[in-house]
Structures are given as structure tokens and as C-alpha cells.
Design a protein that fits this description.
Shape: elongated
Radius of gyration: 33 Å
Strand content: 15-25%
Helix content: 25-40%
Distance between the termini: 90 Å
Length: 433
């Protein structure tokens, strides 16, 4: 008796579930007969079907994913977001729908920069590539290159020059957006139409080091030691430039030809290429010896000269690193930047030496009788920055000789440390005051 009652209850419950399920299915069929999937090209050139509808049935609503093609690249498949880089569905897959959806084609292509190496002696890589998805650009870092005895300027989409001077839009060791394939030409020039012979050339950090043939091997090792110190302790001073270590006679004769006056007391020079170009410094010349120094003074003073000149180069690089390199993408249309001498002029105020806190320090100490650092620091704001940075380096970063014990004002120290902090934070002022 009891078993019969339980069985009746079970039969009643099952019957009710069947009726309810059937009612829900009928209700669903009445209020919704179809689902659809829409397809977005998202970089593809064509899709066999832009929209597919399927009829709802007891088995469900099933669609077959269509084929897609791309003229420039390949289609990996489809996913739910236009930013996805992997395919959840591929052509021919069966998909069960329970709602309307949109699927995006996931497209891929390899963008490549090829470097014309016919006019250079060295390059890190002859081509650089990046993976671009969904009709978007991707980033490449341009390789360091060198032509021995010349100033390395940068890259251009043209091999042309401007009145024999280098033209360039792009800087080595910087990242740029790339939308397709392009060929770039390394641009270089000789500042005085005279090219020196070298006894050593190589890369230290991001910088090219070249040494004129009349410089001794011991002096080469000394300067390599300086640069290794900078690389290990202040790598932000390596700004993808060429550093030439020249004999005293070559330096004097070379710069006399440029300036038309004696440079016997000048120990170093930082400069950029001629013509219509960005203002970023590309080259440093440093004497390898100087008769005005005793042997004991020579080590620390040439260390100072080198860091001083590298600080000039950092000063000129700072606007590019802080605001982003212009142009941001590699394109042949960027050749038009050479049509105006105002190219990159907006960045002049971005130099460290033109920032207001440095200007305020310069103005404050310039008028004092007992000025800190050195008298040469007050010949210009650019020299002021190079001196306070190089003195800071030789006092606090790599304590060297008499620089380690100099009096260094706290307000100058604070400003220098601010810019070091910004450089270490990928040129973002996150808590650097």
C-alpha cells in the first residue's frame, strides 16, 4: 500500500515536470524563433557571411563559422573582442547559440623594418619585426648602427641628403609604431668633411665608442673604464650617441677648422649633425690628453669632462624621452618634416636646462660672489646643467678625486636627484620632487 502511494507520487511529479518543460519549450519557440551571429572584419578583407541566423529547435540553434581572408596577413579565427589575439573559433567550427552574438575576426600580420646597410660598417640587426593584430600597429625598436669615422645621425625613409647634410626622422634605440613594411636608410655625415682613422670602435651600453688611431691602449682602457662606470651606475646618461676619443692635436685642428679659433684649452664638445635635423645631440668629442693636467689630475679631470659632455647629450635627449619621440610612427609621409627648419623646435623648452627649477638655480647662484660648482658653470644654462650633473656624479654616484669632498648645495642636489628619479621611472614624474 505504502509502496503504491510512493509510486503514484513519483509518477505525478514526473508528469508535472514533463508538462512544465514542454510548456517552457513551446513558450520559448513562440516568443523566439531565431538567433543570429554577426561577424566583424576587424582587419580581414572579406568574410563569407557577415550575419548568420539559425532556427531554434529541440537540439538547439547551431551555426557553422564561415571562412574569412585577409589581403595583408592571415585570419586566425574569431573571438568575442576586437582586441583578442587568439582565436576561440575557427572556420568550419559548429557553435551552439542561446543568444545573439558578435564575433570578431582575429587577424595577424608581421610588420618588418628592413635596414639598407650599404653605407654603414655595423648594425645590430639588418631588420626588426613586430606582430600586429586586428589591423592595429605594433612597436619596433630601431637598432644601433655605426659608420666608422662619421657622425651617426639617425634613420630616414629616404637616402637623400639636404645639401650633403644628413636628413633623418627616426632615432636609433627608440621605439616607433609600425603599420606595415618599410625600408629605412641610416644617415651619417662628417662634421668637417674630414674623417679620422680609428684604432678601436665598439658599443658600451647604448653608445658607440671610437678612438682615433694615435691614442694609446692604456688611454683607451681608461675611457672604457669611465663608460663602464656610467653604464653600471647612471645608464640614463647613455643616450645612443657616438663618443670619439681623439688625440689632442687632431681635436685642436679639427675644431679650429669648425670654429675658426683656437680650442687648445677646450677638452670636449657635444654636438648634433648639420642641416635640417632634430636638436638631439648625436656626437661627443673628447681629448685623450691635455698638457695642462698633471698625471695625478688627469684621471679625475677626464672622467669629469666625459660625464660633463654626456650630461649635455642627456639634456638634449630629455624632451624626446619625456614627451615621446615625434613622429611616433614610421611612415614615408614623415619625409615632409624636412620641409621646415622648425622641425622639433617645440622641444627646445623641454631640455632639462630650460626647466624652471634649473633656471631658478642658475639665476640664484650666477649673481653670487662665492658661486658653487665652478665658474664655467655660469657661462650658460646648458653648461650649468652639465656641470651640476657631472659634479653630482663624481661626488655621490662614483666618488672620484677631489670631487668627492666638494661642497655641494642641498637645493642643487635636490633638483639633480629629481631628474635622475624621473629618468629611472621611465621618464614619468611619479613622486619625483
Amino acid at each position: 500500500m505504502r509502496k503504491g502511494m510512493i509510486l503514484n507520487y513519483l509518477i505525478t511529479i514526473l508528469s508535472t515536470l514533463v508538462v512544465v518543460s514542454g510548456t517552457l519549450l513551446v513558450y520559448q519557440l513562440l516568443i523566439r524563433e531565431q538567433y543570429s551571429v554577426s561577424f566583424n572584419l576587424n582587419g580581414a578583407s572579406s568574410i563569407d557571411a557577415n550575419n548568420i541566423e539559425c532556427d531554434l529547435s529541440i537540439k538547439g540553434c547551431i551555426v557553422t563559422i564561415p571562412n574569412a581572408t585577409a589581403k595583408d596577413g592571415e585570419v586566425l579565427g574569431y573571438n568575442y573582442s576586437n582586441d583578442d589575439t587568439f582565436a576561440m573559433y575557427k572556420a568550419g567550427d559548429k557553435v551552439l547559440l542561446d543568444e545573439d552574438i558578435t564575433l570578431y575576426a582575429i587577424t595577424y600580420k608581421k610588420n618588418t623594418v628592413k635596414i639598407d646597410t650599404s653605407n654603414i660598417d655595423f648594425i645590430e640587426n639588418k631588420e626588426v619585426s613586430c606582430n600586429a593584430y586586428n589591423n592595429q600597429s605594433c612597436k619596433v625598436k630601431l637598432p644601433i648602427f655605426n659608420k666608422v669615422g662619421y657622425n651617426n645621425a639617425g634613420y630616414s625613409t629616404t637616402s637623400k641628403k639636404y645639401n650633403e647634410y644628413a636628413l633623418y626622422e627616426y632615432i636609433p634605440n627608440e621605439e616607433y609604431e609600425l603599420n606595415g613594411n618599410v625600408t629605412l636608410y641610416p644617415q651619417n655625415e662628417s662634421y668637417t668633411k674630414k674623417v679620422y682613422n680609428t684604432s678601436y670602435h665598439g658599443i658600451i651600453g647604448n653608445d658607440i665608442l671610437e678612438v682615433e688611431k694615435n691614442v694609446s691602449s692604456s688611454t683607451i682602457n681608461t675611457f672604457k673604464g669611465y663608460l663602464d662606470g656610467v653604464k653600471n651606475n647612471a645608464p640614463y646618461l647613455l643616450t645612443s650617441i657616438k663618443i670619439n676619443i681623439l688625440s689632442e692635436s687632431y681635436f685642436n685642428n679639427n675644431w679650429y677648422a669648425v670654429l675658426g679659433r683656437s680650442v687648445s684649452g677646450t677638452l670636449g664638445a657635444t654636438y648634433h649633425t648639420l642641416g635640417i635635423n632634430p636638436s638631439k645631440d648625436t656626437t661627443i668629442d673628447v681629448k685623450s690628453s691635455y698638457s695642462g693636467y698633471s698625471q695625478s689630475e688627469s684621471y679625475e679631470e677626464f672622467y669629469h669632462v666625459l660625464v660633463h659632455e654626456m650630461s649635455h647629450a642627456w639634456d638634449s635627449y630629455y624632451p624626446f624621452a619625456l614627451k615621446g619621440v615625434i613622429p611616433k610612427n614610421i611612415s614615408s609621409s614623415n619625409e615632409k618634416v624636412h620641409d621646415t627648419k622648425d622641425y622639433f623646435s617645440e622641444y627646445s623648452l623641454g631640455r632639462i636646462s630650460n626647466h624652471q627649477d634649473v633656471v631658478n638655480l642658475y639665476n640664484k647662484y650666477k649673481t653670487q660672489k662665492n658661486r658653487p660648482i665652478s665658474d664655467y658653470a655660469y657661462s650658460s644654462r646648458a653648461e650649468f646643467w652639465a656641470e651640476i650633473m657631472s659634479f653630482y656624479y663624481l661626488k655621490y654616484i662614483v666618488p672620484t678625486g677631489h670631487y668627492a669632498s666638494i661642497d655641494y648645495p642641498d637645493d642643487i642636489k635636490k633638483v639633480v636627484e629629481k631628474y635622475i628619479c624621473i629618468a629611472k621611472n621611465n621618464y614619468r614624474n611619479n613622486g619625483c620632487y
